[in-house]
């Protein structure tokens, strides 16, 4: 029998820490996701979105024609569904699942927000009252009461109570429009209304789209994609935007904060707790509990010097940008954290946790603790369900479980030495402040640099890791090429972590990686060239930043006019498809890497890649090679610059106060 080929771990990741831990795993005979990816090749028909398993008559596999010009109408499943219908249904179900993940997260956050407002949630408070009052206007909630001389401010709690009730109605709303679509540029909202895709509520769009994709219901691919649009918009301009706002109110709106990233942040002589997942509700309390003197003394009584918290995936982004808690790694490093032998507890909530964590935990002493009834893992050490009425007590219990496990380490600890400093926490409000302070802050400063050519354009680079591509490589190759061409990058999620590990999230990175124009701007403002804006749901911050650019003036009347592009070069989850689709239908050219789930049908793919640009001003694209991806994004940015008439160098104009008032008035009218 031929000997099984050994995985070359040096080709799995560009991150030396990841390679080092893969070598440790390989030496110990422990299987990771990288080993499984080597053994199990993806189904090519399924990868193209042309396998239908909606009913039990199948699965029906519809391979692409072997040669151009073959009659696509003869390619159909048993019920007669064409490749276009099958591909659209599969794409739609990905959008459904992605939007459901974000909207369900948002609903949980909104329910907690209501309890906090009524003083019924242990340990939580309304930390950012200024943002609470600002967003109250969006919800039609008054921040004062009385008339004339009797007018007085309402308390933050009363404002939040009224707002919470209105927010919760958004999820079950059956008619009308979601509140936050009013934030979009006027022209963008007109397009959505003309196309009939403004979301009515968060839940109804998901339910209707799932119904439409049932066997024998909607069988016209353009109509399916139209409902995809309403569903995705209910995520980006609904659930995700809601959760970002109210998390900021409860936990604090992010401002620039220093932190560190990579597995080197773990400490051998400390109790190490990994917080892994996507909902910051319990992690906030775990942070509080870990700082309590009694808890630190308890850890010391077990022989540890202290408690080291570290994040994994988007819960990591949340607690890093609010508390400076270091990040252990991104999606493909979750197994490797346990393999250090130093993790006393890995605490998980929802989304992107590998079931294989239970197997890895058994090889070490790590306690794998699940905390959400929606996300159980077979073989986990224990389940400690989160309850917002007793959140701090539950957090203390979780931390104590980790401390009690510290003396049980049974294998040699091997923590990589590398970690990298970062500066994170760039909410769209913070960016505005950095561009001119609390009084004069405006996105026009950014627009002026784009118009003048020092900044070529803006790119949002977001999304997951994918073991079908070299870990972090596509993110970094793409982003470095964009920076070299004076394109400022906004980033979230695992992409943001890849940037952090590569040293792109510090102001010093500007002189090393950027073209002269962008480097000058970053040096002047004192910001990194890649701005960390948070977690997956915080992609809504990028939408708000784009809207702020439109309203600041000088770069067109809609998001689709901006010299901007988006990318998810290593995407893997259904959430990414929902995010991508709400960016496309918000007017952004959006390119994905690795693979694309509709390529089994050229007709459907052309609709997404070409027709949508005529309808919404944004379009999908797929480019596997990150260098080619950068070229296409830069070409799109240059196309938008030419359309705006700013593709040629122009004389710099100094604006007097009257000209600035005109710009401010125009933005107010929008």
- Please tally the β strands and state the result: 18
Terminal-residue CA separation? 71 Å
Strand order of the largest sheet: 8-7-6-9-10-11
Instruction: Please compute the radius of gyration using only Cα atoms.
Output: 25 Å
Mean pLDDT: 93
Give the class from helix and strand content and strand pairing. alpha/beta
Your description of this structure?
The structure is a single chain. The chain is of the alpha/beta class. It is 48% helix and 10% strand. The protein contains 27 helices and 18 strands. A 6-stranded parallel beta sheet has the order 8-7-6-9-10-11, with helices on both faces. Strands 15-14-13-16-17-18 form a 6-stranded parallel beta sheet, with helices on both faces. Strand 7 (307-312), helix 12 and strand 8 form a beta-alpha-beta unit. Helix 10 packs across helix 15.
Briefly characterize the structure:
With 670 residues, this protein is α/β, with parallel strands linked by helices. The protein is built from 27 helices and 18 strands.
How are the secondary structure elements laid out?
Blueprint: H1 16-28, H2 33-39, H3 44-47, E1 51-52, E2 60-61, H4 83-117, H5 129-136, E3 144-145, E4 152-153, H6 156-172, H7 186-195, H8 202-212, H9 221-251, E5 257-261, E6 271-276, H10 281-291, H11 293-301, E7 307-312, H12 313-323, E8 327-329, H13 334-339, E9 343-348, H14 357-363, E10 367-370, E11 382-383, H15 391-405, E12 420-424, H16 428-434, H17 437-440, H18 444-452, E13 457-461, H19 473-484, E14 487-491, H20 493-501, H21 509-513, H22 516-525, E15 530-532, H23 539-552, E16 564-568, H24 574-584, E17 589-592, H25 602-616, E18 620-622, H26 626-644, H27 657-669
Parallel strand pairs: 6-7, 6-9, 7-8, 9-10, 10-11, 13-14, 13-16, 14-15, 16-17, 17-18
Antiparallel strand pairs: 1-2, 3-4, 5-12
Helix pairs in contact: 4-6, 4-8, 4-9, 4-24, 5-6, 5-9, 8-9, 9-23, 9-24, 10-15, 19-26
């Amino acid at each position: 029998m031929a000997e099984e080929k050994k995985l070359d771990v040096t080709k799995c990741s560009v991150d030396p820490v990841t390679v080092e831990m893969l070598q440790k795993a390989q030496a110990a005979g422990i299987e990771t996701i990288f080993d499984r990816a080597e053994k199990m090749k993806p189904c090519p028909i399924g990868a193209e979105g042309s396998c239908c398993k909606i009913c039990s008559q199948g699965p029906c596999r519809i391979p692409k024609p072997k040669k151009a010009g073959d009659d696509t109408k003869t390619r159909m499943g048993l019920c007669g569904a064409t490749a276009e219908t099958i591909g659209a249904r599969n794409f739609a179900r990905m959008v459904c699942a992605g939007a459901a993940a974000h909207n369900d997260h948002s609903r949980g956050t909104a329910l907690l927000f209501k309890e906090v407002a009524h003083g019924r949630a242990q340990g939580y408070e309304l930390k950012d009252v200024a943002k609470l009052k600002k967003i109250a206007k969006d919800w039609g909630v008054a921040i004062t009461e009385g008339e004339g001389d009797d007018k007085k401010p309402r308390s933050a709690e009363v404002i939040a109570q009224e707002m919470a009730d209105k927010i919760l109605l958004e999820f079950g709303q059956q008619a009308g429009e979601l509140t936050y679509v009013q934030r979009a540029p006027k022209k963008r909202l007109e397009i959505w209304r003309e196309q009939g895709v403004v979301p009515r509520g968060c839940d109804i769009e998901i339910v209707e789209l799932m119904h439409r994709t049932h066997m024998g219901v909607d069988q016209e691919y353009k109509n399916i994609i139209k409902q995809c649009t309403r569903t995705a918009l209910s995520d980006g301009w609904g659930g995700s935007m809601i959760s970002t706002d109210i998390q900021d109110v409860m936990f604090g709106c992010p401002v620039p904060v220093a932190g560190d990233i990579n597995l080197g942040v773990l400490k051998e002589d400390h109790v190490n707790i990994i917080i892994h997942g996507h909902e910051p509700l319990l992690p906030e309390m775990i942070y509080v509990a870990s700082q309590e003197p009694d808890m630190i003394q308890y850890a010391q009584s077990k022989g540890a010097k202290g408690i080291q918290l570290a994040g994994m995936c988007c819960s990591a982004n949340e607690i890093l940008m609010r508390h400076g808690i270091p990040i252990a790694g991104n999606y493909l490093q979750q197994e490797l954290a346990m393999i250090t032998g130093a993790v006393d507890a890995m605490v998980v909530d929802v989304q992107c946790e590998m079931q294989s964590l239970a197997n890895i935990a058994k090889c070490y002493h790590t306690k794998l603790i699940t905390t959400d009834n929606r996300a159980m893992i077979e073989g986990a050490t224990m389940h400690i369900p989160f309850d917002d009425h007793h959140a701090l007590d539950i957090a203390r219990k979780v931390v104590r479980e980790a401390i009690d496990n510290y003396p049980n380490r049974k294998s040699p600890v091997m923590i990589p030495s590398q970690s990298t400093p970062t500066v994170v926490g760039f909410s769209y409000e913070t960016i505005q402040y950095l561009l001119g302070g609390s009084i004069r802050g405006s996105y026009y400063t950014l627009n002026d640099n784009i118009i003048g050519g020092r900044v070529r354009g803006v790119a949002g680079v977001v999304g997951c890791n994918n073991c079908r591509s070299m870990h972090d490589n596509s993110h970094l190759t793409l982003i470095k090429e964009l920076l070299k061409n004076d394109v400022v990058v906004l980033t979230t999620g695992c992409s943001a972590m890849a940037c952090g590990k590569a040293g792109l999230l510090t102001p010093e990175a500007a002189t090393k990686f950027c073209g002269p124009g962008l480097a000058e701007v970053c040096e002047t403002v004192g910001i990194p060239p890649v701005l960390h804006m948070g977690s997956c749901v915080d992609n809504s911050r990028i939408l708000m930043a784009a809207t702020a650019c439109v309203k600041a003036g000088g770069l067109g009347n809609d998001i689709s006019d901006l010299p901007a592009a988006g990318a998810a070069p290593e995407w893997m989850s259904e959430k990414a498809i929902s995010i991508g689709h709400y960016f496309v239908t918000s007017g952004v050219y959006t390119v994905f890497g690795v693979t694309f789930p509709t390529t089994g049908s050229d007709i459907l793919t052309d609709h997404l890649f070409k027709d949508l640009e005529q309808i919404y001003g944004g379009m999908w694209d797929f480019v596997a090679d990150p260098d080619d991806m950068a070229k296409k994004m830069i070409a799109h940015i240059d196309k938008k610059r030419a359309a705006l008439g700013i593709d040629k160098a122009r004389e710099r104009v100094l604006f007097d106060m009257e000209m600035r008032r005109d710009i401010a008035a125009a933005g107010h009218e929008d």
